[in-house]
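Q: Got a minute? One more chain.
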Amino acid sequence: MDYGMMQPIAEVRSPHNDIAIYETTQLDGETGKFRCMRFADEDVQGAMDLRNRQRIVLGYQQALVRLLERRDPSFRSLFVIGHGIGSIAGYFRCKTVKVAEIDEMVVELSKRYFDYGDDNVAIGDGRRLLGEEPARSLDYIVLDAFTSKGTPAHFTTEQFFRLAADKLRPEGALVMNMMGRPRDDRLTEAIGTTLRRAFADVRCYSLPAERNRDRRNMIFCASDAAAEFGDAGAGLAEVELAEGQVIRDGLAG
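A: Always. Here it is, folded:
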């Protein structure tokens, strides 16, 4: 991503992350005025358009929203793992939304600098908090959790995916964002294979990247109910992944 000239606003070290808040006039090829949250030297975790604060800015978040709305426009309940600045939860404010975030400072900064005003974020490990939800109670689970090493390993295992499947209603879906490649990527292939151990219908979508070998946002949609999207739109291209290894607790990492 092109971040342009960055104006630092705040830098905070929490027990989980080194967090930077800054403003910039360039973001991923777009000119404007943006406020961003970033962990360490990794990609942007959240961005706000200061001239249109309700707009979802990041392309992968636009894609997530589009997938959720196209698959089930009338869904009621959403469980989000990974808060960022609260873009997904804020967009679906009219739904019943619960958010799990391990880093209390991320939530505090989202309220201080990004206008997040809802009281629906529980602090703790997302897998544990999801485990406390009633069975068959959720329409969607959105997994958008990152550390400097990528998606935490315990969110990539067969046991976690079976837990998620148990919490979803029969027509519900797990939608998962990760960084990877559509070809020759062992982790992406392993996650696709592992998801198929827990769900009957698994789709993988790739967002654009400058070069074929570049890492980019990959979005999985897994459910026991098949859904035909046709053209997924939002820059998404459905990809067929090669078989990979099955990831299990104790073997992840």
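A: The longest helix spans residues 59-71.
Q: Perfect, thanks.
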